[in-house]
Design brief:
The chain is α/β, with parallel strands linked by helices and 633 residues long. Strands 12-11-13-14-10-15-18 form a seven-stranded mixed β-sheet, sandwiched between helices. The protein has a six-stranded antiparallel β-sheet with strand order 6-5-4-9-8-7. Strands 1-2-3 form a three-stranded mixed β-sheet.
């Protein structure tokens, strides 16, 4: 009952004429407990240790600060967040400064803003206030229109600051509250990148050299580039180098999987793919674009002077730390000459996302048990299928990591090597020197392998040698481009593999897709409509559609209003049973093989997706987008 009272009071606006005030630490902790964000025991710990913890945080601030940053007292939100308590309602997440400030703003009757960097206008921010002013007063403009400008402030009750902003901008200021940490982070990213680009533009237009920076060791495939700390970046005048490093930090912080730098007619555009969807992040002057591309090409050990042909390269650096202290990540770089210049795409391979435990891939226990049975075999062929971006690399690398022990020899042939892993003996395809999939498979057999991974079976010759390797006592893992598991069996036949060889070597097939997950921060429950149930082809009982309760994200700041956050896998696992082998021998078509596989216990991609929908993990729209109901099912 107390929790409900606190929540109801929070949602009510302040009565007219009521003076806004900052709640005390005890009041703020009580509100967090009432909303289910803080446990009562943790509240007592905060109140008991507040003086010592505040002094500790203040001492830490005596260290060198960012240029232009003004010293400030430790706020109650910073104090509570510094304990890193797990959320009372979700122990897998923690109570951060943003969540505390959101509650604090509601208690004060002030609008709260969760700053989404993808929705900000760098031009508006940098043209409204200077970086020193923004840092000193901890403010950042969010949007402008109709004579009003919305400004995120750490202290929106500072009337003198609001008046000063109105004088500077000449517009009425709508003050909203945001965490100090979020505002300072945006100031670093927006002003840092924008000032670096602007300075580089001035150099280019003034005829000065923007130099991409020192070159790498061309003899090392894993050449490591240490990204500077934010204050180190701001302290240098190597503007193009700084701009690229800001860009990489921004991508790592926002969980991007790909960075696109694209030339357009009047400017260049930077887009990032987050949870499978591209977002435009920056627009940069056209004159700066070639220098940024040159810097990236130099880091990736490419020929900087060659702009007419596509090139491939890779960068190894660190993410998640403060200047090279975080986890190592790899970036695969590809350039492409397009109508308005050179486009570059950087694909980010984070070991924390690529090399995961098999149980974390998203398979249900039955599928995982069958899959582990496949990879426990000493020989045979296991195929993973799906379109580009469906998570095949994660599945294969995680599988190899799980079975690569000191007692076995793992060799791979890839085009290109997705991520360098020390435990594997990896070879990249190079057609110019006759390093091809078939040629390397022949060579591998003389290298005493136990496990062979072939990046992709593209043609009949590769299929033939992969089957021969599996037939001669090796476990072969590879990928094939088909829509589902049953089609893979027929595809092998179309590639010229004899029926008896398929039956002798193929142990299993896994088709997979990635679906976005419902945001746990804003999910609500609802019932599917009869029409939606019909579209999912869920069987009806007594002529009536069953009631199916599912989850949907309302949209919040954390998920950028999409209602979706993060991704999980869907897996269709086909076990090559005696029934399947009999049909292969009879040259049965896909529909017949699919029916037999389902009779043997296989769940289709659609069925697995519906299970995850019913469990509240994904949305109806995602299920319909990613899975297709085939006629032969």
């Amino acid at each position: 009952m107390a929790s409900r009272t606190v929540k109801d009071n929070m949602e009510q606006s302040l009565p007219p004429g009521t003076a806004r005030r900052i709640p005390s630490l005890a009041e703020l902790c009580d509100a967090l407990v009432g909303l289910g964000r803080l446990k009562p025991g943790h509240r007592d710990e905060v109140l008991a240790r507040c003086a010592a913890q505040r002094a500790h945080l203040q001492r830490q601030r005596l260290a060198p600060r960012l240029k232009g940053a003004e010293a400030h007292e430790v706020t109650d939100a910073e104090l509570i967040a510094s304990f890193h308590f797990p959320l009372a309602s979700d122990p897998t997440d923690h109570l951060d400064e943003d969540r505390v400030v959101e509650v604090q703003a509601k208690m004060m009757g002030i609008p709260y803003a969760h700053i989404d960097p993808l929705k900000l206008s760098p031009e508006l921010i940098t043209s409204t206030v200077s970086r020193p002013f923004a840092r000193r007063h901890c403010v950042v403009p969010l949007e402008s229109g109709n004579g009003t400008i919305k400004v995120a402030m750490a202290d929106p009750l500072n009337e003198e600051l609001v008046d000063e902003l109105q004088r500077i901008t000449g517009r009425r200021v709508e003050a909203v509250m945001a965490s100090r940490k979020a505002i300072q982070k945006i100031i670093t990213e927006i002003y840092g990148f924008q000032s670096s680009v602007s300075a580089a533009e001035e150099q280019v237009r003034g005829g000065e050299s923007t130099g991409p920076g020192p070159g790498p060791d061309l003899g090392n495939l894993e050449q490591y580039f240490r990204l500077k700390k934010v204050d180190e970046i701001e302290a240098t005048d190597r503007h193009i180098v700084n701009a690229v490093e800001y860009l990489l930090h921004y991508a790592f912080d926002n969980r991007a999987s790909d960075i696109h730098v694209e030339p357009r007619r009047e400017a260049a555009v930077v887009r990032m793919r987050i949870d499978g969807v591209l977002h435009e992040v920056y627009r940069i002057p056209k004159v700066v674009h070639p220098a940024i591309i040159s810097r990236i090409k130099m880091m990736a050990r490419m020929d900087v002077a060659e702009r007419r042909k596509p090139q491939d390269g890779r960068i190894k650096t660190a993410a998640g730390g403060t200047g090279g202290e975080g986890r190592e990540v790899e970036l695969r770089v590809s350039t492409l000459p397009v109508a308005f210049g050179e486009k570059v795409v950087l694909r980010i391979f984070d070991p924390e996302q690529i090399l995961v435990e098999l149980g974390e891939l998203g398979m249900y226990p039955e599928e995982l048990e069958a899959y582990e049975r496949f990879i426990a075999r000493p020989n045979g062929m296991l195929l993973v299928t799906g379109p580009t971006g469906s998570g095949k690399t994660t599945t294969l690398y995680s599988t190899l990591r799980a079975i690569a022990t000191p007692e076995v020899n793992v060799v791979t042939i890839e085009d290109p090597i997705e991520m360098v892993v020390e435990e594997f003996n990896q070879v990249a395809v190079q057609p110019k020197v006759d390093i091809t999939f078939p040629q390397m498979l022949r060579t591998f057999l003389r290298q005493d392998p136990d496990i062979i991974m072939v990046g992709e079976i593209r043609d009949a010759e590769t299929a033939e040698y992969a089957v021969q390797a599996a037939l001669t006592g090796h476990l072969v893992l590879s990928t094939l481009h088909t829509n589902d598991s049953p089609s893979t069996v027929v595809r092998l036949r179309e590639l010229g593999v004899d029926r008896f060889l398929i039956n002798s070597t193929l142990v299993g097939v896994v088709a997979q897709r990635l679906v976005r997950k419902v945001c746990q921060n804003c999910k609500v429950e609802e019932l599917l409509t009869p029409d939606q149930i019909a579209l999912l082809d869920i069987p009806m009982r007594s002529g009536r559609a069953p009631e199916l309760k599912v989850a949907r994200g309302k949209g919040c700041a954390r998920c950028r209003g999409t209602g979706l956050y993060g991704r999980t896998g869907l897996f269709e696992v086909l076990d090559v049973t005696d029934g399947i082998r009999k049909l292969v021998s009879e040259e049965a078509d896909v529909a017949v093989i699919a029916r037999q596989a389902r009779a043997d216990g296989m769940r289709t991609l659609r069925e697995v997706a519906v299970h995850k929908l019913a469990a509240g993990l994904t949305s109806f729209e995602e299920v319909m987008r990613v899975t297709v109901q085939e006629e032969h099912r």
